[in-house]
Amino acid sequence: MDLHLMTARPTDEERRAVDGLLGPEPAMNDRVVRGGHETRADRTLLLPALHALHAAEGWISEGGLNYICERLTVPPAEAYGVATFYAMFSVQPQPKTVVHVCDDIACRIQGGNALVAELEALGADGDWTWTRSPCLGMCEQAPAIFAQRAGRPDVSLGEATVATVRAAVAPDSTVTCAGGVTAPQVWDPVVRAGLRLLRRLGEVDPSSIDAYRAAGGYAALRRAIDLGSEGTIREITDATLLGRGGAAFPTGVKWKAVAEQSARPHFVICNADESEPGTFKDRLVMELDPFSVVEALTIAGYATGAERGYVYIRGEYPLATERLERAVAEARVHGYLGDDVMEHGFRFDIELRRGAGAYICGEETALFNSLEGKRGEPRNKPPFPVTSGVFGKPTAINNVETLINVLPILELGAQGYSSVGTEDSTGTRLFCLSGHVERPGVYEHPHGVTLGDAIVSAGGVRGGKRLKAVLLGGAAGGFVGPDRLDARLTFEDARAGGYTLGSGVIMVFDEDTDLVDLVLRIARFFRDESCGQCVPCRVGTVRQEEALLRLVSGRTLGTRADELALLEDVADVMRDASICGLGQTAAAAVGSAISTFGLFDGSGA
Amino acid sequence: MSAVPVAPPRRLLDAEVDGVVVRVPEGATILDACRDQGIDTPTMCYADNLTPINACRVCVVEVEGARTLVPACSRTVEAGMKIRTDTDRVRHSRRLVMELLGSSVDTSLASSDWHRWQDEYAAAPDRFGAPTDPMEAGERDRRWAGHHHGSPDPSRAETVSQPVKVDNELYVRDYGRCVLCYKCVEACGTDAQHTFAIAVAGRGFDARISTEYAVPLDVSACVYCGNCIGVCPTGALMFSSEHDMRAAGTWDEDRQTVTNTICPYCGVGCELELHVQDNAIVKVTSPTDNDVTSGHLCIKGRFGFQYVQRRKKDRT
Ligand SMILES: Cc1cc2nc3c(=O)[nH]c(=O)nc-3n(C[C@H](O)[C@H](O)[C@H](O)COP(=O)(O)O)c2cc1C
Ligand code: SF4
Ligand code: SF4
Ligand code: SF4
Ligand code: FES
Ligand code: FES
């Protein structure tokens, strides 16, 4: 390839920002010896380089992008295609501080819409700007904002008002991420003692590896080493650990498949992109118990024969990123990562990669592409990640919650682990309770808890109001009515009952909620987050939103029944013919609301 | 390229298409198997000379045991696979893909096959409402991922309609006709040209083919090989000669003849197809099944025909 660069040159600041990541530009005669495979391998640094530039300047200029292209041997058109894929990157000049204000479903019913209206009335002031955002993963602190601040650290803040926004954008701003322990169960010592996944939250200093060890940390890795790689995988398999990222795939099967691949190297990835509206459990775990993620990923690496692990973390999670980065560094210093992990002769290290505002990058194959410095477009499967994952190599990718379950499995043994939950859905599960509940937060319950009991554990519907609906499993899940409070939350019950646990979202809506408004917001979400690759989803999500808007306005094409039939036609093609789960579920929540609550049949909510 | 195939003979697999047992070589796609059986399968983003990108989804079929439909153009046949091409599910998805595309993109210059398929599947793109008006030049190029660009008037179906980009003398880019099949990106990139002048930018419905910062072609990396034009299925990329003649109402394929010849410029020996109307060359292509070119050319073979004739820009 004959790299054709633009003529624009970087400013000194831009050059410094990029060099800060990539090191100083090599001298000319050092450069000529590089090429081919070696330079193509640099492509994976594209996203980090874009981040470095954006964090310094607040936008990606032609000169800055050109410099990145030169350093990484990436054609400018492709780098531009990547930069414009992400909501957090601007390719036009903009103020250095941008506040992303969540107007997604949990926030819009709890002050998010009011905040947006106030900011609209306020107008811009030049030094900063704001924009509406999909769910920021802080629904338990609704309404949430995320301030992207070039030249200083980003912050995310909950229970936001205009005053919060002002504090975040002020030139002399001193605000930092709140980092609250929003897992109400841990405040009750008796309840805490029964928890497996949340037991350290709020009690053990997340910045200290000594504290983590004192609280039982790294016992699981020790046990894994004793069992050996095969023994470890057997333990995970016997515990019937199923993936918590949405697809419920058996983790043991996945690890075994990767371990057995002859192609090398192997990779393990922790999927921490958590962007499903209503989901915030992974964030809390990473903020308050980051070492558990590091330890669990190390075990995954040991078991599958991978020497490198990636954590792909949501770009809007500054505190989790900082804490996890620190935990990785600590673990390295203390010999829990590196060339000779725990002096046991295996090599493993972890690299953090930040997303940049794209829900789709949580889909595993889109995540691989994003990691490789390409647009985050999902790949067609097969081939599956276990044979051809990131960089085309065997890859075990797991959700944060799936991974941390590996620790109690090894600590308690498969049998001990399976002593709670049901036969098919072993162990406990993290639920993200938000919306109109008394005590929103992350809750840990054994599989099999009923939806009603889960809601009661969070104090029930706020203000003693009546329950109207629950969004179960996230925007990719579905709405259920109060008649489903006895639904048992297990994989098998969900499958049989036609609902989904998804990412553990339980968003509660009281009797005064406007469901139509929520449905419209969800339709908008899918339209905005579609990667655009395949026709059913790229155009289908637009047609779905248009049809809903027509139904709401009453200005339908043909009758209401015609519009509902059209929605169903579009839903069918999206579900059947889309490449990935985003398109396949883009009509699920909308459809469930319409059918459960008769939204547009004239009688509707 | 060697004229004699050196690869070992491929293993044969048995599978079932619409209840009929078919035998195909390992590595064959479902589309190959369907074509062997004479089963007409609609395609849009597939081309014989490019890596299947399986983005349009109009070729989907049902495979027993699969939760969703699968793209025939890229999915390889596995032994024992049971494939159905004629079910309601398949027909529904194919029709909807045609309707979704037809309602959002000007596909009037797509192949005659495409128009036949639209009729056969009774696709009705206008059921989503009258199309929106064209956007201002450059408006779509500025759309920002994740930022909602909603419909101001939901009774009209949003489209990608926009003014034609005319920024050089050789070819035009009429992205109001772009179905985002990725073919031009593949042809400009790893499948043929390795120039990478164009890529997909933006996201979702706002995704588009673009140079860096949407700069005009003459300052981009483009070398005017025209390979993107050669693969574009909808006339979004078009010789200026054709574009101008269409605008003037003089383009008439019935009056055109095609003359095959070898490019005179260098020793590679690319086969050219000279499309001639009224004794003037109006565009140049190369057969996609040609061993030397696979349909791809360079600027000289593609556009260097002026010395044969002088094409007047204002020819009527
Ligand atoms: C649109 C979309 C978004 C996804 N987002 C996430 C995510 O943020 N985190 C996650 O763990 N899995 C996500 N997934 C699921 C992953 O593709 C994958 O199944 C999961 O990471 C596997 O891990 P597990 O087996 O531990 O569940 C997403 C899937 C889709 C289709
Ligand atoms: S379903 Fe949507 S998000 Fe998934 S590949 Fe297709 S366009 Fe992209
Ligand atoms: S003419 Fe050739 S170089 Fe230019 S964009 Fe098309 S394929 Fe790429
Ligand atoms: S310009 Fe043509 S070849 Fe390129 S993506 Fe659009 S329709 Fe396909
Ligand atoms: S943070 Fe606002 S909806 Fe989740
Ligand atoms: S032709 Fe197969 S997906 Fe487009």
Short key terms for the protein model shown above:
heterodimer, A: 605 residues, Glutaredoxin, Rossmann fold, 5 domains, 4-stranded mixed β-sheet, 24 helices, B: alpha+beta, Ubiquitin-like (UB roll), 2 domains, 3-stranded antiparallel β-sheet, 7 helices, binds flavin mononucleotide, binds iron/sulfur cluster, binds FE2/S2 (inorganic) cluster
Can you describe what's shown?
- The complex is a heterodimer of chains A (605) and B (316).
- With 605 residues, chain A is α/β, with parallel strands linked by helices.
- Chain A has 24 helices and 13 strands.
- Chain A has a five-stranded mixed sheet with strand order 10-9-13-11-12, with helices on both faces. Chain A has a four-stranded mixed sheet with strand order 2-1-3-4, with helices on one face. Chain A has a four-stranded parallel sheet with strand order 7-6-5-8, with helices on both faces.
- The radius of gyration of chain A is 24 Å and the shape is globular.
- Chain A starts with 11 loop residues before the first helix and ends in an 8-residue tail after the last helix.
- The mean pLDDT of chain A is 95.
- In chain B, the strands form five sheets. Chain B has a five-stranded mixed sheet with strand order 2-1-5-3-4, sandwiched between helices. In chain B, strands 12-13-14 form a three-stranded antiparallel sheet. Chain B has a two-stranded parallel sheet with strand order 6-7.
- In chain B, β1 and β2 form a beta hairpin.
- The model of chain B has no long low-confidence stretch (mean pLDDT 94).
- The interface between A and B is large, with 64 and 59 residues.
- One FE2/S2 (inorganic) cluster binds next to α7 of chain A.
